[in-house]
Amino acid sequence: MKIATVLFILISNASFSQAILWKENFKLDWKNFKGPTEDQDVAAVTHCGIRVKPTVKVLVKGKATYTAFAEFTCDSSFYFPQKVDSLVLAHEQLHFDIAELFARKLRQRFTDRGFITPVEARNLFNKLHKEYFDFQSRIEEETSHGTKLEEEKKWEQFVSNAIRELNKYK
């Protein structure tokens, strides 16, 4: 009974949260940022990350194949209209693009491994998530939260190229 309850809670929570999956030609717009404003020291907050799910309905000897998606959570992302402009939006898009880059890296690792246990999938995710978090932090530091335009453009190009290099794992 506990398992059914936990699954129901996970499913019901997911259905109430509005999320956008990353798509190649889709760009965030301020209307996508629907969360309550929480931190007065920022111009905007993008809540994005990587979601993992098995790609098969039936486990084979306790194993499955997995995939990953980059998603932007509208209800947790917010902005202050008086503090933002198109450059801030581009910086927030960069965070979402980085989520896609790391989702592709995780899909690559899942593809390389084939059928794996849920524990193995979680371990791969945890390792990659640390890399993802560190990368996001590095971008924030090196671009000074998107205010160093030359650095921002450099990272936008780097991430765009890295995503393209992993097109096999769309």
Protein architecture, described:
The chain has 170 residues and is an alpha+beta fold. The chain has one domain. It has 4 helices and 5 strands, in the order H-E-E-E-E-E-H-H-H. It has helices at 2-16, 86-113, 118-143, 149-165; strands at 19-21, 44-45, 48-54, 66-73, 78-79. The strands form 2 sheets. The chain has a 3-stranded antiparallel sheet with strand order 1-4-3. It has a two-stranded antiparallel ribbon with strand order 2-5. Helix 2 runs antiparallel to helix 3. The termini are far apart. The model is unreliable at 1-16 (pLDDT under 50). This is DUF922 domain-containing protein. Residues 1-19 form the signal peptide. Keywords: Signal.
- Using only C-alpha atoms, the radius of gyration works out to 17 Å
Give the strand line-up of the largest sheet: 1-4-3
Distance between the termini: 37 Å
Shape: globular
Roughly how much helix do the residues carry, as a percent range?
A: 40-55%
**Sequence stretches where pLDDT stays below 50 over 5 or more residues:** 1-16
Query: Averaging pLDDT over every residue, what do you get?
Result: 88
Tally of DSSP helical segments: 4
Query: What's the structural domain tally?
Result: 1
For the secondary structure, the number of strands is 5
Structural class: alpha+beta
Q: Element order, helices and strands?
A: HEEEEEHHH
Beta content comes to 5-15%
Largest β sheet strand count, sense and barrel closure: 3 strands, antiparallel
